Amino acid sequence: MKYYFIIFISIILFSCNRKAEEKDTRTVFRYNESAGITSLDPAFAKDQANIWATNQLFNGLVQLNDKLEVKPCIAKSWEISNNGRTYTFYLRNDVYFHAHPLFKNGKTRKVKASDFVYSFNRIVDKKVACPGAWIFNTVKQNNDGSFCWTAVNDSCFKIDLKQSFPPFLSILTMQYCSVVPYEIVEFYIKDFRKNPIGTGPFKFKMWKQNNKLVLVKNKNYFEKDDKGTKLPYLDAVSISFIIDKQTVFFKFVKGDIDFMSGIDASYKDELLTRNGNLNPKYKDKFKIITQPYLNTEYLGFLVDTSLDVVKQSPLRITAVRQAINYGFDRKKMMRYLRNNIGTPALNGFIPKGMPCFDSTKVTGYNYNPDKARKLLSDAGFVSGENLSDITLTTTSSYLDLCKYIQHQLSEIGINIKIDVNPPATLREVIAKSKVLFFRGSWIADYADAENYLSLFYSKNFCPQGPNYTHFSNKKFDALYEKAQKETNDSVRFIYYQKMDNIIMEQAIVVPLYYDQVLRFTQNNIKGLGINSMNLISLKKVKKY
Asked: What is the dihedral of CA 143, 149, 153, 154, to 10 degrees?
């Protein structure tokens, strides 16, 4: 009897060990999201944390590759009419939603063009209150207020615009434009945010808010790699929500996390050298991947002279704004304050990494204190005399940069005060035109420079639009409107560069630096890729 008992226990132990080994062979990609995730509904993918998660669960008509080129996704091909107003998409016939009990027999359902009609109508539905509803402002509307998108048949979807708008295809790559199944959304309504059903490479498994989110491999995913192997390669994705960034760093060093994005001041000097390279002691453990990031950090001026507060300020004078641009060393700032993470903004407002960026076509500002002094003198402010009441409004996160600029400007006679505000307060006073000189940043929503230039179009004055400087220039506006009708990228890029030069000539902003995507991975992670939108796609990632 004892003999059989031992055999029985041995079989159990063997089975348990085998299951443990099988479990260990599963490839799970682990990363942390310190900011937390508020929704897994693509209609609310308004920030990076939500965007990263929903990008694994959902697909749209088109998608961006790492070169920011628009590529097919659920739409296998498309046509754009000669006048640039009608977009016709032809859908694949092998795309299915993730399995759910509400589908027939509890299985899956094929995606149809009518699903896009439903998904897009949901984005513009005021009851849904989607923060991305603005993306369809260029779509034509019928007399009854409905939008002009139609399902021609199950595999053909058509959209009509009010007028030509070349960035529209790039806008359709945003997560807001993901397809969702109407029967699932209508069942869960607001709870769809925590019960997502999409078509993506991974399926929702479990979400304990502020603790862990788990996604598992979608074995029915429609995309394949160049060799015909089905994607994704990973078995699962596990996302933790640790707030303390030092703790995240320690876990990454231990190997408990596979990937980190960006870098915090608390461990910046431990992980990077002064030149922005990986600390040699970590070269056998980690990899660093960098790429220009479509984010311009800048200082902005309110230049609307119809406002009394502007009429009384020396910042109303172009020469004073130009002097501020010439008055500090951006290269030195980047080296000592940011370990060279990013590029000094010497070539306009449109950032490095944008397809139209060309350092030879846009003239910005180098460090030139002598020229700055002369500009001040010509404007009637010799040695900074009578140049007062200049306050720079910022947040604590950028206080070191602002103090650096304050110190350097003082050497040419420009003495500025720094007013530190909470981020929410700063956004509010900027939107209400209550500050003359402020720190700002602009991260691209889509990969077209129109996204940046819209900040200076006169019809976009805040609070209705993003023109926080209240800049108004007829030549700029004419180029902006001309560019919107131009479907030839090369020609449109020339218009963009001319507009950027106008912004620089008038010194409407002080570009500080073009940001940089910084990714750290364990050495056993392959295929993560990197792009200037800092979008994460895990479908081609392998873990060894």
From this structure: -140
pLDDT tens profile 519-538: 999 999 999 999 999 999 99
**Under 8 Å CB-to-CB from 438, ≥6 apart: which residues?**
299, 300, 302, 392, 393, 394, 426, 429, 430, 468
The closest of 333, 328, 323 to 367, measured between CA atoms, is: 328
What is the number of domains present in the chain?
2
Could you tell me the residue range of the domain that residue 319 belongs to? Answer: 293-515
Q: Do 491 and 533 have their domain in common? A: no
Whether 254 is in a domain gets the answer no
Whether 454 and 531 map to the same domain: the answer is: no
Question: What is the C-alpha separation between 477 and 458, in angstroms, rounded?
Answer: 7
CATH code for position 172: 3.40.190.10
Residues 484 and 531 in one domain: no
DSSP β-ladder status, 416-420 and 390-394 = parallel
Q: Is 530 a domain residue?
A: yes
Query: From CA 63, how far away is CA 75, in angstroms rounded?
Result: 10
Half-sphere exposure of 459 (CA within 13 A, CB side): 6
The model's pLDDT over 197-215, given as tens digits with 9 standing for 90+, comes to 999 999 999 999 889 999 9
Cβ atoms of residues 517 and 293 within 8 Å? yes
Task: Give yes or no for a contact between 200 and 59, defined as CB atoms under 8 angstroms apart.
Answer: yes
Contact 174, 446 (CB under 8 A): yes
